Amino acid sequence: MAGRGTDSETTPVRPRNDVAQYDDLRDEWWKPRGSFAMLHWIAAARATLVPRASRPAALLVDVGCGAGVLAPHVEHLGYRHIGIDVVATSAALARDRGITMLLGDARGIPMSDGCADVVVAGEVLEHVPDLDRVVAEVTRILRPGGTLVIDTIASTWWGRFTSITVGERLPAGPPARLHDANLFVDRSELVAACAIHGVALSLNGLRPSATDYVSWLLSRRADVRMVPTAVTAGLFQAHGTKVAT
């Protein structure tokens, strides 16, 4: 299938959500039709929620940045872009894209309180076993008045169906076994956890444009636009501004 991009005979079969998969797939990150194609499409949609920098030396912290797929979409906004990822091979690729990298875990971000103007956690929360702890960290480093941007997968049958049951079988869908549906995110818990730390979230769903996707399959488009929707039961975005607590 187009867009899968890996050799099943040489790629190890790993447990679901095993971080070692990102080492296995390191050569796929920047292939236009590789295994991570949809992550690039989602990153473009994520960037639309990032405001232009409002002050000199404004800082955008990209938590779980992978190989830096957000970078091309925010480089014109005026931020110093710092990435955090636990995978060394991904971090090396992100450095090649001009991101200042910190190797570390989202459960203990090695940065000071209130240092960031924007914190982005894209396609991260559905991979962590302790949602509250990660939310506490991403909001801790966000300054009052700063923007939090998230996209993740809802803990619903639709989230499982679209991201695993069908998604893993579609060109440009998630690589097999990358996700564990047991870690998908309860939307009400996410909203409540962020509210505790002074961030009131707005949510919207996100899906690929059907016409773009067909054109992409036919190699008539290089990418696919992600379309905001009112349905948040699958892939969804969340964003809000931190207030003083």
Task: Provide a brief overview of the structure.
The protein is of the alpha/beta class. 27% of the residues lie in helices and 21% in strands.
Overview of this protein structure:
This protein is an alpha/beta fold and 245 residues long. 27% of the residues lie in helices and 21% in strands. It contains eight helices and eight strands. It has an eight-stranded mixed β-sheet. The longest helix is centred in the N-terminal third of the chain and has 11 residues. The N and C termini lie far apart (50 Å).
Percentage of residues assigned to helices:
25-40%
CATH classification, class level: Alpha Beta
Mass-distribution shape: globular
The count of domains is 1
Contiguous low-pLDDT stretches (5 residues minimum) are 1-5
Indicate the structural class.
Answer: alpha/beta
What is the topology, as strand order, of the major beta sheet? 3-2-1-4-5-8-6-7
Number of strands: 8
The mean pLDDT is 94
Report how far apart the termini are.
50 Å
